[in-house]
Amino acid sequence: MVANGRTSRPSQPTLEEVAALAGVGRGTVSRVINNSPRVRDSTRQLVQEAIAELGYVPNRAARALAGSRTDAVALVIPETEKRFFAEPYFSDVLHGVGTGLADTEMQLLLTLVRNENERRRFLQYARAGRVDGVLLVSVHGDDPLPDLLAEMGLPTVLSGRRSADEPVSYVDSDNVGGARSAVRHLVETGRRRIATVTGPLDMYVAQCRLGGYQEAVAASGGDPDPSWTAHGDFTEESGRRAMTELLARHPDLDAVFAASDVMAAGALHSLRAAGRRVPEDVAVVGFDDSPIAGHTDPQLTSVRQPVEEMGQAMARVLLEGINNPATPHQHAVLPTELVRRVSS
């Protein structure tokens, strides 16, 4: 067909059209394209047949053919400035990523994506080919950004993951095992009435740490009743509030596992305000082993996750994806370690 003196090209088939023809969701198509092992063979075949019939070409291949490089990667954090500057976790990840890129020509661009408008602007920026890859930190379960970037064919690596079957490349720590070790330690020191303060449960990391707590309580012969759980959001204020709630429900509690050091610091404040001695009356264990753990009073027992090493591993995985677009998606889980201090 000719229009305005030019031969028009048929529009490229979309991911949604592939999903409709195969009778699956767009997320399933994305997982097939990204070589996720978490797709049934029969479903994978349906999607591949639909791709072949429609002539769908993922943007990943288009980018590889174009061979364009910007020598820049984006570190995207979908959180507020307040949380970014308050939590050592983010600076540790940033330091690790910087170390991982130090011997390359890559420029690192830090971007906070706090709302839908900022997400839309970043996607426009990425679609314009201004970065070679993206590192995503602190992703919530309903965040579509990783899938949207993968559909664009842009190499993407997550710090943590959104679910157990995360299809995008990620580097995580053993959150379940770390939480189990914290509770086991409390049990071994004679604690029997152990409560917990969770992170936001729309994040898989918080779900895993809660799951590890529940498993360890059950293994010790206890009852992981929901009344021993209070919900926080990884902020110090939420730790204070949750600890106050737990004391009101169970005045006889003798230990608390907080899913982050920042929340544990808030819990210590509320315990002190309530006249409880740590560790004599109540033992406290946090998670992260951030610099905060060494500066609380008393110093905080904490589960160390190797955050800087995670940042370095994220950079390495991303560089491999940039340099070789055919590289399969990588999933790495690093070990945790309990660091004992005065609070327990």
Secondary-structure arrangement, i.e. CATH architecture of the largest domain? 3-Layer(aba) Sandwich
Distance between the termini: 76 Å
Count of spatially separate domains: 3
Residue share in β-strands: 15-25%
Give the radius of gyration. 23 Å
Give the CATH level 1 class of the largest domain.
Alpha Beta
> What is the CATH topology of the largest domain?
Rossmann fold
Average the pLDDT over all residues and give the rounded result: 90
Order of helices and strands: EEHHHHEHHEHEHEEHEHEHEHEEHEE
Q: Mind summarizing the main beta sheet? A: 6 strands, parallel
Question: What does the model show?
Answer:
The chain has 344 residues and is α/β, with parallel strands linked by helices. The chain has 3 domains: 2-57, Orthogonal Bundle (434 Repressor (Amino-terminal Domain)); 70-172 and 307-333, Rossmann fold (3-Layer(aba) Sandwich), CATH 3.40.50; 175-304, 3-Layer(aba) Sandwich (Rossmann fold). The strands form 3 sheets. The protein has a 6-stranded parallel β-sheet, sandwiched between helices. Helix 1 (15-22) packs across helix 3, helix 6 packs across helix 13 (307-323) and helix 11 (236-249) crosses helix 12 (261-273). It has helices at residues 15-22, 26-33, 41-54, 59-66, 81-86, 88-101, 116-127, 145-151, 175-188, 204-219, 236-249, 261-273, 307-323; strands spanning 2-3, 6-7, 72-77, 107-112, 133-137, 156-159, 169-173, 194-198, 229-231, 255-258, 283-288, 301-304, 331-334, 337-339. It is elongated and about 70 Å long.
